[in-house]
Structure formats: C-alpha cells, structure tokens
From TrEMBL:
InterPro entries: PXL2A/B/C, Thioredoxin-like_sf. It comes from the Eukaryota. The lineage of its organism: Eukaryota, Viridiplantae, Streptophyta, Embryophyta, Tracheophyta. GO terms for cellular component: chloroplast. It holds the Pfam family AhpC-TSA_2. It comes from Abrus precatorius (Indian licorice). Signal peptide: none annotated. This is Thioredoxin-like protein AAED1, chloroplastic.
Length: 256
C-alpha cells in the first residue's frame, strides 16, 4: 500500500530529526583541529546522505562562483522583477537598495548559518569606514520575514536586513547551489574555528522546512552597487560555504 502524503512527511521528519540530533556539530576546544575535523566530517557525511535520500536535493546544481565587475544583460533584466522584504514586511525592488546610493549587499546562505553570522560581523567591523564614504551595508537572506527578524534580534547586525522568501535574487545572480558546495573540508575547518571562537549555528532556523528543502543549499555572495540601479561594480559569488572575499577588495570597490 502506498504511503499517504502525511505519512511520508511524518517519516521524512523523523529521519531529519534523528539525523539532526546525531549530526549537530560537537566541537571539543581541547582537541586538535584535525581531530575535530574528523568528528565533524563523519557527522556531515551522515547528514548529507540522509538529506539527499529524504529530500531528493541534488548534490550540485551550478558551476563554481567567480568574481566579476560585470553582469550579463539577462541578469540585469531579471533583477527588475526581484523584490525583497524589510523587517516590517514591505516589498522593495532589489535595485532600489542601490538606486540612489552606493551599497555593499551581502547575500547569506540562510539566516541560521554560523558562517553567515561570521560574514555579518566581518562586514560590520568595517561599517565605520563604509559610513564615512556614504555606503550602506545590507544583508539579504533566503527565507521569511520572521527568520530575518530572528537573525536581527540575535546578531544585533547594524546594517539593513532584508528577506527573500522566493529566493529570486539568488536565482537572478546565478549563485551556486548544492549539497557538495555546502559540505566541503574548507567549510568544515572554518566552522570548527568559529565554534572555538564562540559562534553558534541557530538550529531552529536551520531546520525549518523551507531552509532544509531549498534555502539552505544556496551559496550567497557580495555585491557592490550604485548609485544607479544598473551600476554594479563588484560581484563576488561564493564557490562554497564560507567563501568570504578579502575585505580589502570589498573596501576598494565601495570606499576608495
């Protein structure tokens, strides 16, 4: 007898809950990084294989990212129809974020991601310099307005925060996506270091249904744009999770 949709969803949820409890990162500050990486890698393998089986997420769906100062006409045209939402729920055409000003726009993997919390701090540490140059600092995440609010409350990020519930900005910029771009040895080592530095993943946000099935596998990037909606001077597309560009490259693009 075929399972009903509700029974299938329950079965999938049980698999995910079991995997989550097994695979949450257990970092031991007293152990050497290589030993922590072995523990992490074993847990990540369980998580990635279970998620692939349960959700049928492809292991990769795009080529590696690049840095560029130019976007295709297709990308520029598709941005005209992209809307993001502020914390009050107001929809804003994404190009309005830089139409009348210059902005550094960071795209997070998702609002619960520990690597994205580090990215937020990494950029905010240079906000004084951006402010002095009249440059806005913006963060966009693939997820709901409520997730964006939770991120704002927990991180105290001093820039502007917007939600992209449909992930249309990520599609427009053609950011890479896939499990294999998320669980990499380099990302694993970086996560271990972040845990040792006191950063933590928000597991509640990370395992909400939309993030697990769609948003959590999209890598982000960083864009410097404006003034003028078609004036995009710098684009960094993450090739894997935690692929932050050099901060001086961003500052050179936005504040020189």
């Amino acid at each position: 007898m075929a399972c009903s949709p509700s029974a299938t969803l329950l079965s999938n949820s049980l698999h995910l809950n079991k995997t989550t409890s097994l695979c949450r990162l257990h970092v031991h500050p007293t152990l050497p990084p290589k030993q922590n990486l072995r523990i992490y890698s074993k847990n990540i393998f369980r998580l990635s294989t279970t998620l692939h089986r349960v959700t049928n997420i492809p292991f990769a769906s795009a080529s590696a990212g690049v840095e560029s100062a130019a976007l295709s006409e297709d990308t520029m045209s598709s941005l005209d129809s992209v809307k993001v939402f502020d914390l009050s729920g107001n929809g804003i055409p994404i190009s309005d974020l830089w139409k009348d000003r210059k902005a550094v726009v960071a795209f997070a993997r998702h609002f619960g991601c520990v690597l994205c919390r580090k990215r937020a701090d990494y950029l905010a540490s240079k906000k004084d310099r951006m402010d002095a140059s009249g440059v806005a600092l913006v963060l966009i995440g693939p997820g709901s307005i409520d997730q964006a609010k939770a991120f704002a409350e927990k991180t105290k990020f001093e820039g502007e925060i917007y939600a992209d519930p449909t992930h249309s900005s990520y599609e427009a910029f053609k950011f890479v996506s896939g499990v294999l771009t998320t669980f990499t040895p380099k990302a694993g080592l970086k996560i271990i270091q972040l845990y040792m530095d006191g950063y933590r993943q928000d597991w509640k946000l990370s395992f909400e249904k939309d993030t697990v099935t769609k948003g959590g596998w999209k890598q982000g990037g960083i864009v410097v744009a404006g003034p003028g909606k078609n004036n995009i001077s710098y684009v960094h597309k993450d090739k894997e999770a935690g692929d932050d560009p050099e901060i001086e490259d961003i500052l050179k693009a936005c504040c020189s």
